[in-house]
Structure formats: C-alpha cells, structure tokens
Design brief:
about 260 residues, alpha+beta, Rossmann fold, TATA-Binding Protein, eight-stranded mixed β-sheet, 7 helices
Length: about 260
C-alpha cells in the first residue's frame, strides 16, 4: 500500500514514522522561510515542492491520501483526485474547529464545507499535533476501509457527514481540471515571484491588514493592494488575489507566503 502525505503543518516526521511499514510519499512539509527550503524527512520518498499543476504524476499510484497541508486548494484537489479515482483520503481541515474527514469515492467535501476564500493559515487556532498522531495511530489498521466520517479533534467524537443535499455540481472536479490552479511566475529580470489565482477572488484589503498587523510589518495600503514585510521579503497582495513576493526567485517561498498570509487560497 502506498500512502501519499501532503505536508505543511509540521508533524510530517511523526506521520512518516507511524506509517514506516508502508510505502510513503511526502509532498512538501514544514517550510523554513529563512532558509527558503522544506524540512527534509527521512524514511520516505520526498518531493520538495507544493502541489500545484504537478499533482497527477506525484499522486499516481497512491492508495491512501493524507492532507495536512496549510492551504485549502490542496485539500479540495486531494479530495477531487481520490473521489475520481476511487481512492481513500483523510483531510485535516479547520471547520468550526480542527477536524479530520475521511472520504471514499462516495464522500463529498463540498457537502461539509463549500470552497470559499479562507483565513490566512497564520491566523487559524493552534492545532495540537499529538491529537492528530493519536488519531492516525487508531486508524492505522483500517486506513483502506471504505467509509465516510468526521472526527472532531476537540471533542474526540466521530460522526457521519450529511450528504443528503449532495448534487452533481458538488463533484465538478474543478480542482483537477485547472480552473482553480495558482499560476506561479518567476521574473527573469527582477528578484521576485508572482502568484496569480485562476479562480475569481476578491479580498477585503482593510480587513486583511487588521488580521495581519500583529504578524507582519505593514508597509503600505491603498484601494488596490496591501504591502507588508515578512522576514526579508516585501509582499504585495492585490484585491483580486495576485501576490507579488519581492526578494526571492524561489517559487516555494512565494507559495508559502501566499498560503500562510494571503488567505485567498
């Protein structure tokens, strides 16, 4: 059995160790913004990149998918892929509290949480990683079981999601066909990277400024964009989601800042 882990939240090493008896592929993981690199984890096949349009080749051959990434597009893409190819996925998602959803091909992530612009990851409540590891320890013997449930990490309760209002529109696979992709462009002449969402996005820049002011250094705000500094990088986020990260040519750095601070994913 091959397990595909989409990382980002920092406990990838523990998950890889837990599933050491299986073939494990880790995509991404905890990102070090100062070093502009992922924390490498031994004992698995490792891809040092965020999942974007490169997903198909990396996902192929996977049986069980575990998404503990820091961006919602990754989670919906993982669910799209596993539903289409009749695989199993576990999605760690903040939805009125931290919860883990398990879906087979009959499950629907859109039924439990419609895709919308999310809060920046940096603003989400802290997650107790030990509870996630304990959950997967209990699931280890039943990973491939075809079932659908929601496990609330706060209460410790498991419930069946309500799919009674599911429709064909919920399973349109937009995250697989490129309609929801993020286009990353590295400048040839300047030291910057641009991230542009393909989907329609409208950001309340004033609200974003208030949300981020205790986490970044605000430099400038007007009706068109918000500019701030994080570490050595200057970042401009425009109303329609386009994000310019100055001070790097590393696309993973730009995507990490986009996922962690923009909240438009």
């Amino acid at each position: 059995m091959k397990i595909i882990i989409l990382g980002g939240m920092g406990f990838e090493k523990e998950l890889v160790s837990l599933f050491r008896d299986f073939s494990v592929v880790l995509i991404g993981g905890k990102y070090d913004l100062k070093k502009e690199s992922f924390h490498r984890v031994d004992g698995c096949e490792f891809f040092s990149e965020f999942v974007t349009e490169n997903y198909y080749e990396i996902f192929s051959g996977g049986d069980v998918f575990i998404d503990v990434s820091i961006n919602n597009k990754s989670k919906y893409l993982t669910w799209n892929f596993t539903a289409y190819y009749k695989k199993i996925c576990y999605i760690l998602l903040f939805n009125d509290g931290w919860k883990i959803y398990k879906f087979d091909e009959n499950g629907c992530l859109n039924c439990v949480k419609s895709y919308t612009s999310s809060l920046p990851y940096v603003l989400l409540p802290e997650l107790e990683s030990s509870k996630v590891i304990c959950f997967f320890e209990s699931e280890k013997v039943s990973l491939t079981g075809r079932e659908n449930f929601c496990f609330d990490l706060t209460s410790g309760k498991k419930v069946e999601p309500d799919f009674s209002k599911c429709s064909s529109e919920h399973k349109n696979f937009d995250f697989m066909n490129g309609k929801m992709s993020d286009i990353v462009s590295v400048s040839c002449g300047e030291n910057l990277v641009v991230v542009s969402p393909m989907n329609d996005v409208t950001i309340d820049l004033g609200r974003l400024k208030e949300n981020l002011k205790n986490h970044v250094g605000i430099l400038k705000e007007n009706m068109f964009f918000l500019e701030f500094k994080v570490e050595k990088f200057n970042v401009q986020i425009f109303r329609h989601g386009r994000t310019v990260v100055k001070g790097t040519k590393e696309k993973n750095t730009a995507l990490f800042i986009y996922y962690n601070y923009a909240g438009v994913v």
